[in-house]
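Check these lines:
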Amino acid sequence: MLKVGVLGAGHLGKIHLRLLQQSTKYELVGFYDPSKENSKKVVKEYGYTAFSSIEELIDAVEVVDIVTPTLSHFDCAKLAIEKGCHIFIEKPIAKTVVEAEAIRTLASQYHVKGQVGHVERFNPAFIAVKDKINNPMFIETHRLAEFNPRGTDVPVVLDLMIHDIDIILSAVNSKVKNVHASGISVISETPDIANARIEFENGCVANLTASRISMKNMRKTRFFQKDAYISVNFLSKESEIVKIQDAPENPDEFAMILKNDAGVEKQIYFENPTVTNNNAILDELETFADAIVNNTTPIVTLSAGTEALRIAQWVIDCFKTEEDVEL
């Protein structure tokens, strides 16, 4: 079992602590939180061991789980890496792309592994269809959330949209060519609603919408590719695949047949892949343990986390300039 410690015992940090304690692949050593009051409360309620400093915790573990505010990600990661610890770091990987690149460089220099907490990669609805996504040419995402003061210290792009940016980058085998975006601040000091159009060199276009002041929650992505449409509902954990193939000579009487102007007939097939329920956060943590033990590549690498942040930052830059960003 890998000795692990958690930096940050806020809302998400406490979830990580609970899951790491349950895991058969980690030995939870303890946590550090800068708030003494919160640390005492967590110790009293859950019985975890609290450390008096970041350095003390890092010295006692092999893996550091960084669940602190984004502003401190780089400093925490640097301390852990320089002590030879592997790092799991919540999204976004860092405050800036420069910091993210520095984390990547340090991890390579000290020969440690890192994974970024883009948890939607482990959503069972996405897992059920990801191997069916083949060269999509149009992608549409909607990630809408009811207002919650937690997270409003950063733009909605870094709070919500970055989840979909990471999913899209994992599905499109091409470089980003151009970004168009707009964002509006309604309640917060930073944009609460944003829309982005991301164009890739291979011609794929992704249209992303994110809001944290909606009346209902929605987390849905649609992939359109040749002869298929794939829908992933990250919230309800459901997937659907609609395929279009040449119609057979003698179709079933209940078959859905379409005929185009040239008289070519196509049949529509509906598939609902089996979705196996899981705990996505536990899975991302445990697959990282597997990568360390087996010396394999983590599922969401530091490079992937950096690229997601890079595109997210370009989206935010569009808000500032009100112009398209040529990449």
